[in-house]
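Sequence of DUF1634 domain-containing protein (Shivajiella indica).
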Amino acid sequence: MNRLYFSLAAIFSSGIFSYSYWKEWIQIKWLNSSAVLLPEKPEAPYFHSTEELYLRVLLVFAIAFSLIFSLSIFFTLKKMWKAVFFCFVMSMLCILAVMINGAIK
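Predicted 3D structure, token representation.
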């Protein structure tokens, strides 16, 4: 049962983040939606300074979470449980990286 929980956690955590980052990147880049940036506020992260930097950060995290998502599904189907657990850990570390990146002013 623990294997199922780790595989679902790895798939859902990376999948949700992957979807949200790709959705925002595609809306801004291709659908001409405007990015909501707050460069004048002191609590805004560093990547809110320009739209180009904001898009680059979105793309990097979208690719990272997509890779983890794809590998999680692949390893779950192949029943490689140690690799699934590794994907779960990588997903949690990427979420930590998102939080640290957002805290940099």
